[in-house]
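Incident review: delayed structure delivery

Summary: a single-chain prediction request sat in the queue longer than the usual turnaround. Root cause was a stuck worker, restarted by the on-call engineer. No data loss occurred. The affected request and its eventual output are reproduced below so the record is complete for anyone auditing the incident later.

Affected input:
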Amino acid sequence: MTIPTATYRIQFRDGMTFDRAARLVPYLKKLGVSHLYASPIFTATTHSTHGYDVTRATQIDPSLGGRAGFDRLVQALQNAGLGLILDIVPNHMAASLENPWWRDVIAHGEHSRYAHFFDIDWSRPLTLPFLGTPFSEALEKGEISVKADPLTGLPAFAYYDNVYPLTLDSWQGLNLQDKVDLAALHERQPYRLMSWTDAPRDLSYRRFFEITGLVGVRVEDPEVFDATHQLILELVHSGAVNGLRIDHIDGLADPKGYLTRLRQQVGPACYISVEKILAGDEALAADWPVSGTTGYEFIAALADALVAGPGIQALRHAYNAVTGKSLNMDAELRAAKALMVDRNFAGEFTRLLALAQQLVATASLENDLRELLLAFPVYRTYATAAGLPATDDLLLQKIVAQIGADTPLTRLFRGAAPDDATALFRTRFQQLSGPLMAKSVEDTLFFRQSVALALNEVGAEPLAGDFSPTRFHRAMQARQQQQPAGLSSTSTHDTKRGEDARARLYALSEAPEHWAAAVARWRQLHQPFVRQLRDGPAPEPAVEWLLYQALAGVWPVTLKPDDTPALQALETRFIDFVEKALREAKLRTDWAEDNQHYEQTVLAYARQLLSPDNPDFLQDFTTTLQPFIHAGLANSLSQTLIKLVAPGVPDIYQGSEALNFSLVDPDNRQPPDFARLQKMLAESPPYSWLNGQIKQQAIAALLSVRQQHAPLFNAGAYLPLATSRDDVIAFARTDADAALLVVVPRLPFTAFQGQLPHPLPRAPIDLPASLTARRYRDVLQGGEIDVGDTLISAEPYLVLFSSSQ
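Output delivered after worker restart:
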C-alpha cells in the first residue's frame, strides 16, 4: 500500500467540477500533497451542495462533468504523479424520487427488486414523510391530486412538484377527482404519505441521523454491496482511484464485516480510512483492515498542546458568573441525550423497545433500555451474532457498574446470539447509540454551553480534564502505535469552525480574566438591545457569551471597524450561524418548532454587533481582539507544523493551507479563492502572516521533506523532548536514517505579549544521544547548523532535519 504524503480535500459541487479541479493539479503538486481527496462524486439529488445524498451509485454525477470529466481529472493527476482518494457513502442514499431504486420501491413496495436494498420495516406500509401537513389535510386543501406521471404516463399522486407512482391495479373503478376515492386510493398503496413532523415518532425505515431524506442502505447483504460498489470497485481496479474514505462507518450493521469484504474486493494496495469518532480513550479496532480514521481525534489532541489548562477553569468560572448557575457537564450531557431519546429519536427508541420486548420479560424494560442508552460513553459497540469483542465486553462491564445492575437487557449482548431476534436487537441498538451520541454532543451540547468554543469540536469532549503537553505527547505516542497512517485533520467539511478560528480561540485560555472583562463591558453596552420575553431575556446571558466568542473566532484578520461592506458580508455569514446555533441548542427554539419571536430578537442583537451605527463597540472589539488575532496566527502555525510532522497523514482541507476562519456548515463548505492561493504560493519572501502565506509556505517546505523521506514519517518513532518552559512544545521523529526536531510556541498570547511571533531567548532543550552531534538543515529558514548535547535557538519556530544518507 502507498501511504499518502499528504491529502488535499476538495469539495465538489457549488462550482467545483472535474475540469476545474484538473486545472488545480499543478498547484497541488507544487504545494507538495500526494493525493487529491474528493468529496462524493456519484450522482446526487439535483442542486445537492455536498453529494452525500446519492441517487445513482453506479453513475458519476453529470453535473460535475460525468465520466468523461472524471477521466480527464484522473489523467491530469496521474500525469503529475498524484493519486486520488474518493469519499464513499455506503450507509445511506437519498430517499428521493430521483433515486430510481427508491422510486421502484415506492411503486412496488415489498415486491420491488430493490426492496431489500434499503433498511425498511415491511411489517407496515412504507412511510414517506415529505408532506407539509397530514395526508388528510393536504388532500382537503387540494394539495394532493392524481396526474400523469411524466416518466411513465400512468396515474400518480402529485404533491406540488413531487409525483408518487401508484400500483398498477389500484386506481381502477375509482373517481380520481373525488377526495373520498383519493383517500381510498392512498390506502391501497404500499406506502403512506405523511407529514414531515411525524417522522421522529413514526418512520418505517432507518434514516441517517435525523434526516428523513436519507434512507439506510443494507450493505451487509452481498447483493446490495455488489450493486452499490460496482462502479467504486471498477475505479479502484482500473487504477483511477488509489484510496477510499468511508463515510459514517458506525452506521453500518457490521462495520468490521463490511470492511473485510471491501478489503477483499479492492485488494491490499488501496488506502482506506474511516470516518469514526473515538470517544475518550477509545482506540480504533486493531482488527479492522484500514489505515486509520479521518482524524477527528487528532483535532482533540491538539487542544492539549495549545490550550492553557488553568485558563479553561477560569473561563468556566466566568461563564458560571455570567449565566448565574454552575455548569454541570455530566448533567448537561444526560439532559441532551434524554431529549434525543424521548423526542428526536422517539420512533427509533420505540422500535428498539418492541424488539427488546420480544426477548426480555421485565416490568422495567423501557426504563432499563433508556438508562442503558443514556449511560453509553462511546458512539457504539461492535457486537455481532457471534458476540462482543473483548474490548467492548470490558466497556459493557463498566456500563453495568455505572447503572448498578446487570439486567436481562445487558445480557442480550453477551455470547453468541441464540436467535435472529437477538442479533437484530444488537444491530439496531448499535445503529441508534451512535446517532444518539452524535446529535446529543455535537449538535446539541456544543451549542448549549459555550465556555470555550475551541473545545466544542467534532471528536472532542468540552471541558475534558487537564490540558497539558504531557497528555498530548502520550496521545501522539499512542497514535504512532495504533494508526501511524491515519489522516491527521485540522479542518473538515464537518468541523464546527475552521482551524484558524479554533487556533485563535485557544488563546482565550491564556487571558481568561481579560476576555471575561471585555464580555462584561460589551454586554453592558448592549443591554438596551436585550428584550424581556415571556420565557426570559433574549438573548439570555449564555447566548451573549456564545455570540461574542463566535464573533471573535470568525473576525477577519485585517477587518477595520469602519469597513461597512466587509461588515455586511460578515453579518450575512454570522447571522446564518446564530440561527443554526439557537436551533441546534433546542432550548427555546429548534428546527421542528421554531420560535420566531425569540429568534428574531436574538438575531437583531447579533446584527447590532456588526452595525456601522455601533462604532464604540466595533472599535473596542477590534482593539481588544488584536492580541488574540496575533496569538491565533501563532497557534495556527504551531498546529500546522505539528500536523505535518506528528504521526499520521496530514490532511489539508481546501483553502486551509492559508487561513480558514469558517463557521459551522454550510459556511465551511464555501469554495476558497484558488487564484489567490496560487499567486501567494508563487511569491518570493518576505512572506506575510496576515494572509496565511507564512503557513502556506511552511506546508510546502515540510511536505517536500515528507516526500523525500517517507519512512521517517510513516514508521519513525515519536520522541517527546523535555523543555523547562511552559510556552514551547518540542518533539522529534527518528528512524535509523534520519531525524527531525520540532520546537514551536504553545502559549503565544503570553510569550509574545500580544504581538506577532518574534525571536525570544529560549532555555536549552536537552537532547538524547541519538539526536546529538549531528548537522541539521533548517527546513523553515534555510541553512545548516550543528547541534550538540542541547538545542538553543531564539527562533519561535524551529524544524530541523538531519539525514545520514
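Verification: The longest helix spans residues 615-645.
Action items: add queue-age alerting; document worker restart procedure.
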